[in-house]
Here is the input.
Amino acid sequence: MSKIISFASDFGLSDGSVGVVKGVINRIDPDIKINDISHGIPPQNIKQGSLLLMRAIQYIPQGVLLAVVDPGVGTDRKPIALETEWGVMIGPDNGLLNLACATVGGAQRGFLLDNQNWIIPSEGNTFHARDVFAPFAAGYASGQLKIEEFGPELDLQNLNQYLIPLTDVSKDEIKGEILWIDHYGNCQTNVSPEELNGLKKSIGDVVNIRIGNNEIKTTWVETYQGEHLGNVGLVTDSWGMVSLFATNKNASKILNIEDGAKISFLV
Here is the structure.
């Protein structure tokens, strides 16, 4: 197994938390490489973290995933490791890991991080990324610790899940929501191109959209530079979902919408 840990968190880069966690890993084994996926997940936003990991898992090196978005740190939520065909995923049991697990075929086994020899003693109980998650990730990646030595095996059925909201599809309407707003203000929906095809819409067609109480008409185009009606356009994004965009502008600000906004596509 290659000595690499892919690391994602909501820590940001201003207060040193990321550097401390990486320092713990490399004190255990200086040869471990750390692949930073992102540390810009919105604070405490388990949904955004879960979606980010689902997108990333297909493209990062197999081995160990260390993911921390943990508003329940210090409570009775479990610190866990999930074994998959891809590798081992380590983080809190709050739904953060399950979409990534599902993307690579599901969890095979789960373990509680409970081996006291691999937990850093601390008077506080608020930095499990440093004191619990990082040591176990490093121990496993370095070959010093087997997953069976992490702690008791868990019943996978009892772990917390985050589920992508389902669309509501009828003959003349698709009801969905905004799943993700990226750095550029593009607004990804949970609607697939196939569902839009079901309304007899295809690339180049005008599409009627309702967001809240507002209705707009736009065009489904192939690229972010495609010509479209109105201030925003519609595109199939790199993750295969239907997204709203504004050419070289911020669609979320133009539409005044946020993550979780309800959206409908109409005949």
